[in-house]
Specification:
The protein is elongated. By secondary structure, it is an alpha+beta fold. 36% of the residues lie in helices and 24% in strands. It folds into three domains: 154 residues, ATP-grasp fold, B domain (D-amino Acid Aminotransferase, Chain A, domain 1, 2-Layer Sandwich); 81 residues, ATP-grasp fold, A domain (Dna Ligase, domain 1, 2-Layer Sandwich), CATH 3.30.1490; 145 residues, Succinyl-CoA synthetase domains (Rossmann fold, 3-Layer(aba) Sandwich), CATH 3.40.50.261. Strands 7, 8, 9, 10, 11 and 12 form a six-stranded antiparallel sheet that branches. Strands 1-6-2-3 form a four-stranded antiparallel sheet, covered by helices on one side. Strands 14-16-17-18 form a four-stranded parallel sheet, sandwiched between helices. Helix 11 runs parallel beside helix 12. Bound molecules: adenosine-5'-diphosphate and magnesium ion (MG). Magnesium ion (MG) binds next to loops. The site of magnesium ion (MG) has 3 residues, from loops.
């Protein structure tokens, strides 16, 4: 689960990580008061969306007058923000953080994640923080400091001091860095975080270390034990169809392509998408209908697939292991009737009673193409959807 920058910073403050003064607003009429409470000078208007790269997408605006702040708020509120990390539709801006503009001396990067290769919580830090950190990581990886925390041990003051020194932080700044890093580690481990990031972590001419941005992703599987975190969920930032699907225990992710996919099993779904790509098509979604598929869930899956504007054809790929293919075929027929599916459809069935299942589909009143071979099915649905 993702949360907003303002929510991450509020958690930071609870753990003694320093952040600039800021006020959250959701209407332009609140902008003047927000600026007044922050004091004179420079303000930064920041779009609250579940994506990074907001600066590059025009979602972080530096303003030198209240009028400029109000103009920025008017432009942003109610619009969608497209950033290098969103799709072309972008994400809705319903809230803005008005923050005191800071005097930036240095922009550092500090993050923690689980490194799957070393199986350790790993600290990433860099002197080259800011909006181009992805480029730094790709082009000059030696500028990223990596430290894996011993899973049986703890993060020590010495570990922090060594990273601070590599970042060129001394004296008071090094002390503040230790506090910040230990706090990030504490949030990470106590709140079941999968990624936590401060970019940029700035130093000011007054020798202050401040978190100017905050990103936290939580492990969905552990959310049940963090009621305080569940409350931070903002469904306006999530894909409506994906949420609807999860209510039916369908694992659905919409994509940009034209071929809707309905598959049982996540691995088979991935392989099916690969085959579609391999034969010149592009999948419109990832969809795992799960093992114990019912006619109702198949119908819901068709409904979801058909509701996406870009879909031109549907490939159903079911391996009957525990489920019988003839029952699946009946489910598909019922679902097509219920949903009124009008798109070209290709069904590939394999496994228990596959022959009977394919025969049922072939004999039906609907125009359903069938295949026992997955490669052939992929080739044909690409043709049918062209
Ligand atoms: P994103 O990472 O989504 O682009 P950030 O919050 O990191 O958004 O903001 C982008 C850049 O804007 C920062 O790297 C920093 O240079 C500048 N910035 C952000 N907040 C402030 C602030 N309060 N004062 C001054 N500059 C800021
Ligand atoms: Mg940032």
């Amino acid at each position: 689960m993702h949360i907003h920058e303002y929510q991450a910073k509020s958690l930071f403050r609870k753990f003694n990580i320093q952040t600039p003064e800021a006020v959250l607003i959701d209407s332009v009429s609140q902008a003047g008061d927000a600026c007044a409470s922050l004091g004179d000078g420079v303000w930064v208007v920041k779009a609250q969306v579940h994506a990074g790269g907001r600066g590059k997408g025009g979602g972080v605006i530096l303003c030198r007058s209240i009028e400029a702040v109000e103009n920025a708020c008017t432009a942003l509120l109610g619009s969608n923000l497209v950033t290098p990390q969103t799709d072309t539709k972008g994400l809705p801006i319903n809230q803005l953080l008005i923050e005191g503009g800071q005097n930036i001396e240095r922009e550092l990067y500090l993050g923690l994640l689980v490194d799957r290769q070393t199986q350790k919580i790993t600290i990433l830090a860099s002197t080259e923080g800011g909006m181009d950190i992805e480029k730094v990581a790709a082009e000059t990886p030696d500028k990223i400091i990596k430290f894996g925390v011993d899973p049986l041990g703890v993060l020590t003051e010495n570990n922090c001091a060594s990273i601070a020194s590599k970042l060129g932080l001394k004296g008071n700044l090094a002390t503040q860095f230790n506090t910040t890093l230990l706090a990030l580690y504490e949030i990470f481990t106590t709140k079941d975080v999968s990624l936590i990031e401060i970019n940029p972590l700035i130093t000011t001419p007054e020798n202050q270390l401040l978190a100017l941005d905050g990103k936290i992703d939580f492990d969905d599987n552990a959310l049940y034990r963090h009621e305080d975190i569940i409350e931070l969920r903002d469904v306006s930032q999530e894909d409506e169809k994906e949420n609807e699907a999860s209510e039916y225990q369908l694992n659905y992710i919409s994509l940009d392509g034209t071929i809707g996919c309905m598959v049982n099993g996540a691995g088979l779904a991935m392989a099916t998408m690969d085959l579609i790509e391999h034969h010149g098509g592009s999948p419109a979604n990832f969809l795992d209908v799960g093992g114990g598929t019912t006619a109702e869930r198949v119908a819901k899956a068709f409904e979801l697939i058909q509701s996406e504007d870009n879909v031109k054809g549907v490939l159903v790929n079911i391996f009957g292991g525990i489920v019988r293919c003839d029952l699946i075929a009946e489910g598909i027929l019922q679902a097509i009737e219920k949903v009124g599916l009008t798109l070209p459809i290709m069904v590939r069935l394999e496994g228990t009673n596959a022959k009977q299942g394919l025969a049922l589909l072939d004999q039906s009143e609907f125009d359903i193409a069938t295949e026992a071979d997955l490669t052939q099915a992929a080739i044909k649905i690409v043709e049918l959807s062209a």
